[in-house]
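For reproducibility, we list the full input for the flavin mononucleotide complex.
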Amino acid sequence: MSGNTFGQIFTVTTCGESHGKALACIIDNCPPGVEISEEMIQKDLDRRRPGSTRFGTPRNEADAVRIISGVFEGKTTGTPIGLLIENTSQRSQDYSEIMNSFRPGHADYTYFLKYGIRDYRGGGRASARETAMRVAAGAVAKAVLKDLFGVTVSGCVTAIGKISTDKYDPEVALNNPFNFADGSEATLMVLEQYLDEIRLSQDSCGAVIEARAQHVPVGTGSPVFGRLDATLALAMMSINAVKGVEIGDGFALAAMRGTEARDLMSHNGFSSNHSGGILGGIATGQDIKVRLAFKPTSSIMTPGASVDKNGNDIPNLVTKGRHDPCVGIRAVPIVEAMMALTILDAIMLDRAQCGSVDRESLFHIPV
Ligand SMILES: Cc1cc2nc3c(=O)[nH]c(=O)nc-3n(C[C@H](O)[C@H](O)[C@H](O)COP(=O)(O)O)c2cc1C
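The corresponding predicted structure, in tokenized form, follows.
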């Protein structure tokens, strides 16, 4: 009901606000015997961490994670895993102007109307600082997926504002400041100029991220309300600033003919993967493909019209504080985390119900 817990078997409950003392999460029902370390979780957190380039917010959080329970001698014990990150770089005075007013495009208004009270400092619980805990929990899920099921998850930015690429290359993305799938010198130069112009004009822009899961066992997922596409869409839409999700070819499928869109089958394999690795809500064994649209950052220095909580118009509200000009750039590990949490939970649900089905003995299309 509260919206702070994700998953049905492999569950994650997060807590914490942007300028509170700490962020924390509890992971429950994690399989035992999987190797987990703070260093391993930290690697993913460092990819999300602000302050590493001038294309993100200058806020410099260490985001140092501590494992406080559920791991003994480097391995999960099957008991709840507690993770903790202390907040160290709060500048709450930056937010005094929005104490009584609502930033257009942000969650100040809706949180206040829902609860009648709000921690305005840094956006409180609506701030994307909360996603640090998802990344940490996602790193645990990734380790379990790889170790027990051979499943891997990756992602990269494929569009920043109007600059896009058809490429998908997570390795290239790891090695440029935009996490962009095309790392050619010409593209990086265009992106740099574009983002500098956005930043200097005190504006912001959106982005698209694509993520894939490989080697997901055929049969993972459920029918009807538990469709894997539906749970993935829920997971992705739960990320701050995400306003669109596509599975496989997504919206482009609407303009295709059936002859183009269906993925033909033979005993040798599938001819294509327009469906993004899911049919009837159940994994085919092909790569699972998801694309997400992030809206432009709403907190920008360019003045905009808003209201205060007494109903007075504020014609020129300026949002101070340290903000990302393009929130999508830092979001790749968040998307990977939500993908990993969703797929692992779906695999565990499938094994709980259908573990007795001997799929190895059934014909299955090689992928
Ligand atoms: C990695 C990441 C960083 C973000 N940083 C900012 C930011 O610096 N300033 C801001 O106004 N919004 C930022 N956002 C977006 C807000 O968290 C989001 O717009 C807000 O919670 C309202 O939710 P909604 O846009 O989904 O409706 C960020 C989002 C992500 C995923």
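Residues 5-361 form a domain with the Chorismate synthase, AroC fold fold (CATH 3.60.150.10). The radius of gyration is 21 Å. Both points were considered when choosing residues for closer inspection.
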